[in-house]
Amino acid sequence: MSLYSLVVDAAARTPRALAVHDLVTGLDYGTLDARADAYLAALRGRGVRPGDRVLVWTDKTTEAVAVAQAVLRCGAVHVPVPRSNPRERVARIAADARPALIVTDHDDRVPGTVCVPCADLVREAEPRRETEPRRETEPPRMTGPRPEAEPSRETEPRPQTEPPRQPEPRSKVASGPATAHHPVRLSDPAYILYTSGSTGTPKGVCLSHGNALAFVDWACRELALTAADRLANHAAFGFDLSVLDLYGAFRAGASVHLVGETLAQAAGPLVDFLLERRITVWYSVPSALVLMAEYGELLERGPGALRTCVFAGEPFPLKRLQDLRRAWPGVRMLNWYGPTETNVCTSYEVTAADLARTTPVPIGSPAAGDRVWLADDGEILVSGPTVMLGYWGGEPQAGPYRTGDLGRYDAGGLLEYRGRADDMAKIRGYRIEPAEVAGVLVAHEAVRDAAVLVVGTGPDARLQAFVVPETGRTPGLVELRRHCAAFLPPYMTVDAVHVVDGFPRTPNGKVDRAALGGLVARGVRA
Amino acid sequence: MTDLERAALLDQLLRYVREELETGLPADQITPGSPLLETGVLDSVRTARLLAHIRTAHDVRVPPVHMTGEHFRTLETITDLILLLRSRAASL
């Protein structure tokens, strides 16, 4: 069993069922499977070996999904990085992950690395089709897209007018050396998700095939996913929410509908997307749903075909959640919790009973086979099958993972989220280490010192920067935003800049962040 | 579509973004060609508000398939998108 076998198995069962659809193109399982094998051959041709990392810096497309499958089939480690990350940040990630290859779908290049566009890999895979003798007993396996699947504008899974192909023994299909799937163990690394790092550099959370499958298996049962489901993929590929959308769909033989990075920011069109694609399972941060309700008439226009709505990544503002629950009594709603390091480790089902509550909904009880408990100081600890292997380049994770989140139990014994033990913050579900942003600001020539904090919650959260300028300089907001944009993903850019002479300090000399927050409240601005 | 129409539309969008979108940026720093992502003009809240404005003031709904980085790079590209969507609606 491996993470890549989900697509292989679904392709054997239902080759004509829709697997993945981006904004323009859809691939059925048979085509996705063949395409993954074509990329696999091309990656091998490029010298990618088991254990290598392959960084995939692309928009959210069916091709990027096929490349990811190829990376896993190669026994290599998938490192997805959202397209919106600027070159400098990708360079930092690459410096840590040391990928054999960076696969792109654009012209940007990272100096000192091998960057290859998807299109080149497709071309490199094609000669193989001509030169490699196909065994007579094998059904035709196309390395290119099926004519009827591209450019497929359909949003429909094709009706199965012909009986599914007989499942073929894997050994036969993968008999060619170029496309033989590398056998992996559950403990082998499958992917690395880079998240904001408190030391100023992104840190890579490394998860195994077994980590991912433990979560996906649990989630498929919990959500009762079937081949008839249509999952939306709102989160960027570099975020762990994507793991459910993609691999949950693949395990169930369902379809996943990719929301491009720009569409993901557009509340109104997102509601159109939900309805037009007849999405049955939605998973996103609460902020996305709040904005869709506020700007896209989500409550009035929905739920369409939606049967389950899952949210995670930040607390759902209670009144907004109750509005949603009231508007859609027939939709199952789940509040999930878990840092990238553990994927989902607790779950709470929101029901009509929560309409009467006056405090935020709990994060619930342990999920996915994990054990979750509180340390004496209230920190949430997690151990179990979904806990990461470790940070890439660091020591293997030993013992329970300390989340840095604070919790407590409610009267019914369910876990509640209380906040952070450190400075880490969330903006619309995105995890941000203020120190990483401050580190980038200090690198600007006009900035001598910087401190960053998040003020506000939910959709109103804003990243506030306090800068001590170099003598004679007054860095403006535009200048610093452009500087941030060159080094950080868009969600980490500063919303406001406050120029100060120095920082308020606590008695032991640390920056007094509470006092800085007070400055924002009093309206000190650049 | 005339050049005059395009200029008027672009001007109107520019005024909206400068005066009502609460970008935190001084008006003179926002131009028709400013990169909207890099300057932090379009986050999820402001994207939602801008689209709502385009719908009410210009009677254009941007369909999901057109919500791409290419179309939303600058106010100029957004103007071209609105004109494209309008001409399509007119030819139906």
Automatic annotation (TrEMBL), chain A:
Region (Disordered) location: 125-183
One BP annotation, GO: secondary metabolite biosynthetic process
Keyword field contains Ligase: yes
Residues in AMP-dependent synthetase/ligase domain copies: 9-392
Biased composition (Basic and acidic residues): 125-139, 147-171
Domain of life: Bacteria
SUPFAM superfamilies: Acetyl-CoA synthetase-like (SSF56801)
GO MF terms, alphabetically ordered: ligase activity; phosphopantetheine binding
InterPro entries, A to Z: AMP-bd_C (IPR025110), AMP-bd_C_sf (IPR045851), AMP-binding (IPR020459), AMP-binding_CS (IPR020845), AMP-dep_synth/lig_dom (IPR000873), ANL_N_sf (IPR042099)
GO CC entries: cytosol
UniProt keyword terms in alphabetical order: Ligase
Residue span(s) of domain AMP-binding enzyme C-terminal: 436-510
Coiled coil: none
Protein name stated in the entry: D-alanine--poly(Phosphoribitol) ligase
From TrEMBL, chain B:
Domain of life, source organism: Bacteria
Domain (Carrier) ranges: 8-89
Organism, as annotated: Streptomyces fuscichromogenes
Name assigned to this protein: Carrier domain-containing protein
InterPro entries noted in UniProt: ACP-like_sf, PP-bd_ACP
Cross-referenced Gene3D superfamilies: ACP-like (1.10.1200.10)
